[in-house]
Amino acid sequence: MTPIFLQKSLVEELKALFAGFCSTDDVVGKRGQVNIFAQDLPIAFGGDEEERVPYIIVRIDSGNIQELNQQERVEMILVFCVKSTNENRQGYLDIMNMIQRVKDRFFRKYRLGEYFFFEPPFEWVVQEEDTFPYFYGAVKMNFYCPAIILEGDLC
């Protein structure tokens, strides 16, 4: 199973995990579904870029295999974005709630689908730079993909 299959599995898991989660813009009272994107934001052609918010980007960052016949460790990064026009700047609360939801999921159940396993550390960060009314956060997670086993006389 390749890192691409891991990414697809994680996208589907996050869609299910955030199906009932809505970010709230307190001033407007607008609630929108969380959009999940693989690797990057899609390019907006003629549409409103704000339609993508709130969102999570599921990004393959790096990977390695230390020895033959061993699992591949893949580092994934989740990027979170919400919009909150409330003057109290409370959008970070939505970000922290999203991060907590992911953390709860993977510390309760390490397995993702049939083939992938989460392993700590679980690192998170919230943005320090002022980008009001948009708020950002990120999570870095490690997953293990099944090993590729040598065949034939080389084993």
Structural commentary:
This protein is of the alpha+beta class and about 160 residues long. It has two helices and eight strands, in the order H-E-E-E-E-E-H-E-E-E. The strands form two sheets. It has a six-stranded mixed β-sheet with strand order 3-4-5-8-7-6, covered by helices on one side. A two-stranded antiparallel sheet has the order 1-2. Strand 6 and strand 7 form a beta hairpin. The model has no long low-confidence stretch (mean pLDDT about 90).
Summarize it.
The protein is α+β, with helices and mostly antiparallel strands and 155 residues long. The protein has helices spanning 3-17, 91-108; strands at residues 22-25, 30-33, 35-38, 55-64, 72-83, 111-112, 116-126, 134-145.
Q: Give the integer mean of the pLDDT values.
A: 88
Q: Which structural class fits the helix and strand makeup?
A: alpha+beta
Label the overall shape.
Answer: elongated
Strand order of the largest sheet: 3-4-5-8-7-6
What's the alpha carbon Rg, rounded to whole Å? 18 Å
Fraction in beta strands:
35-45%
Number of strands: 8
Order of helices and strands: HEEEEEHEEE
Q: What's the number of helices?
A: 2
Helix content: 10-25%
Q: What about the largest sheet?
A: 6 strands, mixed
Instruction: Name the poorly predicted regions.
Output: none
Oligomeric state of this protein: single chain
Distance between the amino and carboxyl termini: 20 Å
Helices and strands in order, then pairings?
Elements: H1 3-17, E1 22-25, E2 30-33, E3 35-38, E4 55-64, E5 72-83, H2 91-108, E6 111-112, E7 116-126, E8 134-145
Parallel strand pairs: 3-4
Antiparallel strand pairs: 1-2, 4-5, 5-8, 6-7, 7-8
